[in-house]
Amino acid sequence: MIKNETEAINWIHSLTNTGERIKHDTQERMLTLLNKLGHPEKKLPPIIHVTGTNGKGSVSRFSQAILTASGFKTGLFISPFIIKFNERIEIDGHYISAEDLTSYTQRIAAKYTNQTEFEVITAIAILYFSESDLDALVLEVGIGGLWDSTNVIDATVAVITSVGLDHMDILGDTLAKIAFQKVGIVKPTTKALLYGRIPSEAKNVIEARAVALKVTFGQIDAKIKVSRGYYQRYNAALAWAAVKVYLHAVLPNDVFLKIIDQWSTDKLIKFLNTVSWPARMEKISEDPLIILDGAHNPQGVAVLNDSLLREYGDKEQLILFGHLEKKQISAADFHSLPLATVFPVNWQAYKQTAQSNQYEEWHAQLDELLSKIDRKKQMIVVTGSLYFVSQVRTYLNKKLTQID
C-alpha cells in the first residue's frame, strides 16, 4: 500500500523495466489502464500537444505561462523533471502536491496491470488534470508522437518544434521516419499544426500528413528576442504562435482579439524573460559564470554552440559533457567553438548514486574545474543528458555556497 509521496515515487520508478518495453508501437497498455479509470482523457479541456527532437519542453513551458498569464487555469505535463519529480505535473506553475501525487498514484496502482513507468506517469497526469477544472492544457510528448502515451488525446493545436536524428532505435533511422512518428499527434479533429525550422525531408512528410487530414498547417520561422539563449528566440515565437492559434480556435472572436491586444511585443518579451526553465541555457552562477543546458543530441549541441558563440564568444568555455552512450554525440561536436575545451565524463545511467564510479568521476572533474577557473576569461558549461545535467545542478547548488 502506497502511503506517502516517497512511496508513490519509488513505486513509479520501480516500473522502469515492466510493460514489455520492447513494444513501442502500441497504446494497448495505456488504453487498458484508461478504460479501467473511466476514460479521463475524454474529460480534458482543449489541448496544445507539443513534440519535437529539441525545444518541446521550452515551447510547452512558454505556452503554459502565456495562457496562465492570460487568465486561463492551465495544466502542464512535461518530461523529464530537472529539480523535483512533481514538476512533471503542474497547474499554473504549481507542482502537483505531495498529497495529490500520493492519492492519484494510489488510484492508478489499484488499476495497474503491466504499464511502463512513463505510461503510469501520463495516466496520473491525465486523471489529475481531468478532475482539476482546467481551462487549458499543454502536453509535452515523451518520445516521438504516434505511439507516445500522451497521444491518447485529441489535440486542438499540434506543435512540432524540430526534427532530428534522436531515439533512432524507437523512431527510425531517417528524418522521414522520425517525422512520420512526430506528425502522428495530428488527428482529424486537430484544428491546426504548427512547426518550426525543420529539414525538407521531414517537412515533406509532415505537410503531406496535414494535407491528407485536411488540417491547417504552417511553419513558424520568426524570433522573439528573449534574453536567455539565442535558440530560445525561436521557441518563444513558436509558443506565441501556438497560443494565438489555440485561443482563436476555442474562443469567440471578440474575446480572442481582446486577449491578444493585451500582449504588446514589449510586454510579451518582458514576460517571457521571467519564465523560469531550468537546464535550458540556465545561468546558475554569475561568478564564476556557469551555464547549464541539456543538449543531448547533435541538433541540440549545434544550437547550444550557436548560442555560446553569440552570447559568450569572448570567453573560454570549459565544457563538462556527460551523455548516454546510445546518443550519437561526442566531444567532436563542439568543434565550432574555437575557445572550448571539452571534458567528457563517464556517465551511463540516470539513476546514479554518490557511491557509483561514474558519479565520482564527474564529481571530481567538476571540483577541479571550479578550483582552477579563471573567472575573468573562462566559463563552465555543463551539458549532455538532462538527467546528468539535473544531477550536476543539484550538486552545484550546494557546492556554490562554499565558493568565495
UniProtKB/TrEMBL annotation:
> Zinc: is it a keyword of this entry?
no
Which terms in the Gene Ontology molecular function aspect does this entry carry?
ATP binding; dihydrofolate synthase activity; metal ion binding; tetrahydrofolylpolyglutamate synthase activity
InterPro entries tied to this protein? Folylpolyglutamate_synth (IPR001645), Folylpolyglutamate_synth_CS (IPR018109), Mur-like_cat_sf (IPR036565), Mur_ligase_C_dom_sf (IPR036615), Mur_ligase_cen (IPR013221)
Q: Can you quote a single GO CC term? A: cytoplasm
Protein family membership:
Belongs to the folylpolyglutamate synthase family.
Name of the protein in question: Bifunctional folylpolyglutamate synthase/dihydrofolate synthase
Domain Mur ligase central stretches: 50-222
UniProt keyword terms in alphabetical order: ATP-binding, Ligase, Magnesium, Metal-binding, Nucleotide-binding
